UniProtKB/TrEMBL annotation:
A biological-process GO annotation: signal transduction
Domain CheW-like: 11-151
Organism: Dyella marensis
The organism's place on the tree of life at top rank: Bacteria
SMART domains in the cross-refs: CheW
Pfam families cross-referenced by the UniProt entry: CheW
Protein name listed in UniProt: Purine-binding chemotaxis protein CheW
One Gene Ontology cellular component: cytosol
Length: 156
């Protein structure tokens, strides 16, 4: 049975950000805030895409490197536009370091398409692509991107 890609793309509002020069987007209702990069404490022995943890308004938030998480080349150049997009899924906060935050996108279901030429994987965070100014943007599933277990969905 093929997996259902309709859950995440059903959202209309998306925040577009760049990773390795490519546009990606997360559902706006799952974006808690966008903060400047910095003040991340490394966690010894952590996965290579986990930059560390950061304190944010009294909460400890893990911060992932968006490029490493998606298998993209990491740009170590000018970091002045880098931001941490704080994503929320059922009470869990996870920061995602991005190269730059772009703008907002309003998509409708008829403009979405499954990523072409990709093998469908249950853990793939890219669930669809949508047209945007200048090309296409990959739409991300926050739960999969942040590696949160499916059980959280039933617990809500």
């Amino acid at each position: 049975m093929s997996q259902d890609h309709t859950a995440a793309p059903a959202e209309r509002g998306w925040l577009i950000f760049h990773l390795a020069g490519q546009p990606y987007a997360a559902p706006l209702k799952q974006v808690s805030e966008v903060v400047r990069d910095g003040d991340i404490t490394p966690v010894p022995g952590a996965a290579c895409d986990l930059l560390g943890i950061r304190q944010l308004r009294g909460r400890i938030v893990p911060v992932l490197d968006g490029c490493r998480r998606l298998g993209l080349p990491v740009d170590e150049g000018d970091g002045s536009r880098r931001r941490i997009v704080v994503l929320s899924h059922q009470g869990h906060l996870v920061g995602l370091r991005v190269d730059a935050v772009r703008d907002l996108l309003d998509v409708s279901g008829e403009t979405l398409a499954a990523p072409a030429g990709r093998t469908s994987r249950e853990d793939d965070p890219v669930v669809a692509v949508a047209p945007c100014p200048g090309g296409f943007v990959a739409l991300l599933d926050v739960r999969r991107l942040c590696r949160l277990p499916e059980e959280l969905e039933a617990a809500a």
